[in-house]
Amino acid sequence: MTGDLSTNEEAGKIRYLGSGDDAIIRPGVVLVAPSHEYDHFLMRSAVFIYAIGLDEQENTIVRGVVLDHPTAFTIGEMSPNVMGSLSENQLFRGGYDGSNTAILLHSAGGGDGPVKSDSMIGSSGIFEGGIVSAMESADAGLIETNQCKFFFNYMQFTEKELDNMFAGVEDGDAWVSLEIPTDYVLNSDYERGQLWSKLRNSIREIRISA
C-alpha cells in the first residue's frame, strides 16, 4: 500500500460523495461496496467509474473497473503486444464485461503529458488509453511504470442496476461514492479487497468526524 499514513490522514485525502440513494455517480469517482454485497466481482470491491454514455438504444450505460482484484499474470504474459518495461505490470480483473479486452489507466496524459490519450476522467487525474505512447514513454524514462495500471475487462451497469445497488441498505450499510487520490487508483500492489478495506476504514473515520 502507498505510504504509512494514519487512518485519519488517509481519510483527509478522500472526498465523500454520499451513500445509498444520495450518492453522486460520475466519471472519476470510486464506488465502495457494502459488506452485504455478494456478487462475485463486486463483493469487497472498489470500482473506479471511467465512462458514462449511451448504448445503441439510447440507454445510459456506466462503466467501471474493480481496482483491487489482481490476476496471477502480468500484462505482458496475457498480451504480447505490450512490450518493454510496462509488460511487467500486474494485470487486474476489471469485471465481467468487455469481450476480453485490456484497459489502460494512467496519470501521464493531458496536454503536457507524455502519453497521448483522451481528456482526464472527471477530476481524478486519471486518463485512459494511449498504450503505444505509454510503452515508449516508460522505456524512455519519461514516466514511471507505476503511473500505469492494466485491467482485463470491466463492469457495465445500467441506471436501473445502479439504482438497485445503491437502494440496498442493511444496518445502515450501503454503497458509497468517493473521490480518492490518483495513487490509490493506480496502485498495483493490492491484494483482493485490500483497497476496499482501506477505504471502508476511511469512510468510518469521515463519518465519525462529521
From TrEMBL:
Q: Which superkingdom?
A: Eukaryota
Q: Which Pfam families match?
A: DUF179 (PF02622)
- Report what the protein is called: Uncharacterized protein
Source organism (scientific name) = Stephanodiscus triporus
